[in-house]
Amino acid sequence: MIEGKNPSKKSIGLRADMDALQINEKNHVDYCSKNEGKMHACGHDVHMASLLGAAKILYTLKDSFEGTINLCFNLRKRNIPVVLC
To answer: What is the reported pTM?
Structure first.
């Protein structure tokens, strides 16, 4: 949560999700999945990186906006959802 001036005036939420797909990793690179049958194949890593980057920038600007920004990191969207807000 990033609180700007007058935090109760407005509220907005930004969400990013990251989960693994049930795909066998066939790449032979340093960053490939270490879990058999699981692969981060659909760009969710960049979702998390984008939200972290936005959070860093928005935190430095918190004195220039009114309201609160809620940051939600959704770790899994399939099966049982786990959301850290």
So the answer is: 0.68
